[in-house]
UniProtKB/TrEMBL annotation, chains A, B:
Keyword DNA damage: no
PABS domain mapped to chain residues: 121-361
UniProt superkingdom: Eukaryota
Sample GO molecular function, one term: spermine synthase activity
Annotated InterPro entries: PABS, PABS_CS, SAM-dependent_MTases_sf, Spermidine_synt_N, Spermidine_synt_N_sf, Spermine_synthase_animal, SpmSyn_N
Protein name: Spermine synthase
């Protein structure tokens, strides 16, 4: 196997045992594994011990002076190796408990991190927390003119669409689609709807069920549409099989010229649903142009909205408070004054609570 | 700071560049940081290079022969250090791209793992995936006669109750309580209900709102009740302020003797809600006694159920297919024959989909 198997063990403790007695105690266990050690005495900074064996497995033991011990072992994934490492960690753990005689405040072993595996399982949240997904297959991967497209299979969530390594939608994520459609409070029957983005077809599929007059979807990337039609069918059903249906049309083009065209024509919609990429996280000045871009889409969208119309969009994860505040500031700076409400929703595959906005003309 | 800051960088690549040219290329960048290197030439197993500086920061670079490079750096958390490490990783990453001239298949940096921090942020799922929570406070921690009790604060989920390091319920987890009460399909008005477990008071609080005739809750650990009354108020409201109310009573005792007593008295309930610990994961023979214990609770519960009564319980995460199958096998082996249905629900703080069961007499 190509993957580097990585086991992390963390042992913060409070004890009168000194570093050298811990070293002596653990040494026989690591020697048993055929590992040779190199000790670095860092003086007031404690000890660092490096273990290597001939096959290229290695481990580091770091003893800090302020009562923290960390142990890491990295090894190639081969049959039985995972179990061998777990057994070794069990032995080290028992020995640590023994050496420190109940003076351990915490002793924690983290699940192994697998790197270089066939399927990438680590997809951090928007607020940059480490999350391991239950990915067991890479269903599709390609670069389009616009972005990197991946569809990965999760044991529990079904297929997941990632654009530029950002989780967009999983087949389990009907709550996302329901939230961005107004959480079941709206009556779409006979209505005119414009979707910006939404290339996975999830919103389109749910809308079409509700007998609207006409849904127009503007999405830029044909390759995403094709991949989702094939691999995201629990989200889009058969709605992407054709770009035109009884009550919908898909325009494979950038939504900005579409919005401008409709604006000039004076065409109005009951609902505009913006399913484009999440709002920016950053609040730094260099991102000013991103916010301006976002505001221009908002301005154009509000322009094609009937006086009684509603604009729905996703925001960001609930922890990105600065980004959300910046977005709300944009809402207060539109050409046409608007009011808004927001709702926090749990989207299964996101692993973080997500904010959705409803915007309407004052 | 006490925490060991740990940045992991993973760079699987395909390239004609050999290990030694990567080494030479990265060397100046690491020397700049005042790090001294020790090179281990592992022959057919590639290279391992160890970097150390005087403050005790260290890094490992492992170059595998099968086109995988891993880089890890560990450093104490001090002001500005995190940013310095990110800058270093940026430089190494750029250099790698440069050296391998577009022959990198993937280059991925994972968020830092913080060990020995004041608040523990790593709580794996039932299927042992690594999950970092947004924990920013340890609200309560104590050992009772029965278990370790922790209440941690999550930025997005509010307070979270952990028993023996297992996430039980967060203040965000009304979907859990709704699911274990039958997902809104039941009419509890005027009904007799028995709760087994449920020390966080979430179910009790929701039930009492629905005007039942009488709810009896049997929970063993007074310390959990006290902690939740104080710190889980978004889940339990004021229902745990008194152990007796107009339509409920809390018996602070093990549920087994309670069930036996009610069984002998011939007392019957419309609903039994089992909120005890999740069903076992293991299917190994040594766990047989756990399954027997579980079956005996099921038998006792069904015995106190009216012929039209319903028994609700949580199962396990949807990925623990073997454990779930074993549980369903127990349901088919009860003294009184039963039928069951199950439902998969997204509980916000769990980070994995959870299975809930409804059981009724045939």
């Amino acid at each position: 196997g190509k993957g580097a198997h990585h086991v992390l063990q963390r042992c913060p403790f409070f004890s009168s045992a000194d570093g050298s007695s811990i070293l002596k105690g653990l040494q026989p266990i690591l020697e048993e594994q055929g590992m040779t050690q190199t000790i670095h005495d860092l003086g007031e900074n404690g000890y660092l011990v490096m273990y290597i064996n001939k096959t290229g497995s290695f481990a580091t033991l770091r003893i800090y002076k302020d009562k923290l011990v960390t142990f890491d072992i990295q090894s190639s994934v081969v049959d039985g190796e995972g179990q061998r490492i777990q057994n070794l960690c069990n032995k080290l753990q028992d020995k640590m408990k023994d050496l420190l005689k109940g003076n351990i405040q915490k002793l924690k072993r983290l699940p192994a991190i697998v790197r270089g595996g066939v399927h990438d399982r680590y997809w951090p949240t928007e607020d940059e927390r480490l999350i391991e997904y239950d990915i067991d297959d890479t269903v599709y991967e390609a670069d389009s003119r616009y972005q990197n497209i991946k569809i990965l299979h999760s044991k529990q969530f079904g297929n997941i669409l990632l654009l530029n390594d950002d989780i967009n939608l999983a087949e389990s994520d009907l709550p996302y689609t329901q939230a961005i459609m107004g959480s079941g409070t709206e009556n779409y029957t006979g209505k005119e709807v414009l979707i910006l983005g939404g290339g996975d077809g999830g919103i389109l599929q749910e809308l079409v069920k509700l007998k609207p007059k006409m849904v127009t979807m503007s999405y830029i990337d044909q390759m995403v549409i094709d991949a989702c039609r094939k691999y995201m069918r629990k989200a889009c059903g058969d709605v992407l099989d054709h770009l035109k249906g009884d009550c919908y049309q898909v325009l494979v083009e950038d939504c900005i010229p579409v919005l401008k065209r409709y604006g000039e024509e004076g065409r109005l919609f009951d609902y505009v649903i913006n399913d484009l990429t999440a709002i920016p996280i950053s609040t730094s000045p260099e991102e000013e142009s991103t916010w301006e871009f976002l505001r221009s889409i908002l301005d154009l969208s509000v322009k094609v909205l009937k006086p009684t119309g509603k604009y729905f969009t996703q925001g960001n994860c609930v922890n990105m408070t600065e980004g959300l505040a910046m977005y709300e500031e944009q809402l207060n700076r539109l050409s046409c004054p608007v009011e808004f409400s927001k709702k926090v929703v749990c989207v299964p595959s996101y692993m973080e609570l997500w904010v959705f906005y409803t915007v309407w003309k004052k």
